[in-house]
């Protein structure tokens, strides 16, 4: 089965708050002997439905953004690759390292902090209404997101909602980042302005309907 290296940079552009990309500071520190993780994309789908293997490569040579290394893992699916094979790659292909990266703490936050979202939001890939209640625990931010198209029957069924990482919502619209964890936004409601597309705070929202 043939393969190619996937670009971690391009994946990060599509999902900046859920796909970790080593910072430029970390990439600049990489040297011969360090291990980096690359994404090996197969030309065909594996039996488990996936199409990629993430494997460690030991750096043997470096010239600015160009690297050569040897495969440090034995592939499970890609039979055309073997442990010790030489791999030419660029910094854009590196999706992880073994070096400490302060930026990874931000990614941990986006993954660990949770919000509740209507299934319709995920289907439409948009949200137009959001409420913040008292958080249930240290991981819960207290937010509930709606597409704005849900009817009363839909909203009354808890099975139509799920808990996800806040990073998934930030991938959709990161304008909420400035107030997503602000204590002053507890018991607040926001609605998207159809004209500007901006989220606007709803003054005097009637919270009694949720009692």
From TrEMBL:
It holds the Pfam family Imm33. InterPro entries: DUF2314, Imm33_dom. Residues 116-202 form the Immunity protein Imm33 domain. It comes from the Bacteria. Residues 26-95 form the DUF2314 domain. Transmembrane segments: none annotated. This is DUF2185 domain-containing protein. It comes from Paenibacillus alba. The lineage of its organism: Bacteria, Bacillati, Bacillota, Bacilli, Bacillales.
């Amino acid at each position: 089965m043939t393969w190619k290296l996937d670009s971690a940079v391009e994946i990060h552009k599509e999902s900046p708050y859920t796909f970790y990309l080593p910072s430029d500071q970390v990439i600049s520190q990489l040297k011969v002997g360090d291990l980096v993780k690359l994404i090996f994309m197969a030309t065909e789908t594996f039996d488990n439905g996936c199409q990629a293997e993430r494997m460690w490569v030991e750096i043997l040579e470096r010239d600015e953004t160009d690297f050569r290394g040897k495969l440090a893992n034995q592939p499970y699916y890609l039979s055309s690759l073997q442990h010790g094979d030489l791999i030419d790659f660029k910094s854009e292909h590196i999706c992880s390292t073994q070096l400490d990266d302060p930026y990874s703490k931000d990614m941990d936050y986006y993954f660990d902090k949770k919000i509740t979202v209507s299934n319709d939001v995920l289907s439409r890939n948009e949200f137009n209404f959001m409420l913040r209640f008292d958080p249930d625990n240290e991981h819960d931010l207290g937010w509930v997101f709606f597409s704005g198209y849900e009817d009363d029957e839909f909203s009354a069924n808890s099975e139509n909602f799920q808990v996800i990482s806040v990073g998934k919502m930030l991938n959709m619209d990161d304008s909420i980042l400035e107030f997503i964890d602000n204590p002053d936004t507890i018991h607040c409601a926001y609605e998207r302005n159809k004209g500007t597309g901006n989220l606007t705070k709803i003054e005097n929202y009637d919270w009694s309907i949720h009692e």
